[in-house]
Amino acid sequence: MILFYYLINRRLTGFSGLATLYSAARQNQGFMLTKQKKDRIIAKYRTHASDTGSSQVQIAILTEEIKELTGHLKDHKHDYSSRRGLIKKVNERKKLLKYLRKENLEEWEKLVKALKIKVSKEIAEENRKAEEDELGLPVEELEEAVEPVKEDAP
Questions:
Q1: Residue 18: pLDDT above 90?
Q2: For the chain, what percent of residues have pLDDT higher than 90?
Q3: Is the CB of residue 82 less than 8 Å from the CB of residue 72?
Q4: 97-118 burial string, b = 16+ CB within 10 Å, else e?
Q5: Distance of CA 129 to the CA centre of its chain
Q6: What is the per-residue pLDDT across 44-85, written as a single tens digit (0 to 9) for each?
Q7: Beta-carbon count within 10 A of 43 CB
Q8: What is the DSSP annotation of 40-71?
Q9: N or C end: fewer C-beta atoms under 10 angstroms in the chain?
């Protein structure tokens, strides 16, 4: 049934349409994550045993979907529908990251490092200022105050 709707929507008829569909199916060019990939992501980023919907898990899943869509768009530069979907996913991830940062800064930092997400300069500067406020000294002065341990040579 799905094959029929696909052929109608794509206006693919005859042998070439079936060949295109067969080729796409063989290469597994789906845009959605497979259940196995999603389960691995959930297992890696969950906060407790039955967690499937925490911010960390949602951000990790969105990041993987964004990676897949980005790869697709490198091959298909004029696929504007997928580009729109990519922009929606990036914005949703941005909102979730903002929420997580507001609620739990340590978890946010850990997740951003684990997923290798780029952080804007403004956010990095805000984090630096927050560290300075928390410790009461500028970061440069703290680095100078902490002297490296010198080992005595025998």
A1: no
A2: 51
A3: yes
A4: beebbeeeeeebeebbeebeee
A5: 26
A6: 999 999 988 999 999 999 999 999 999 999 999 999 999 999
A7: 10
A8: HHHHHH-SSTT-SSSHHHHHHHHHHHHHHHHH
A9: C
In sequence order, what are the residues at sequence separation of 6 or more whose Cβ sits closer than 8 angstroms to the Cβ of residue 140?
Answer: none
Q: Is the pTM of this model over 0.70?
A: no
Long-range (24+ apart) CB contacts under 8 A made by 97-105 are 97/59, 99/55, 100/55, 100/56, 100/59, 103/55, 105/130
Tokens 């991830």 appear where? Answer: 93
Place of tokens 């530069």: 77
- 102 in Cβ contact with 68 (< 8 Å): no
What is the C-alpha radius of gyration for the chain, rounded to an integer number of angstroms? 23
**What is the number of alpha carbons within 13 Å of residue 129 lying toward its C-beta?**
6
- Can you tell me the mean pLDDT for 123-136? 77
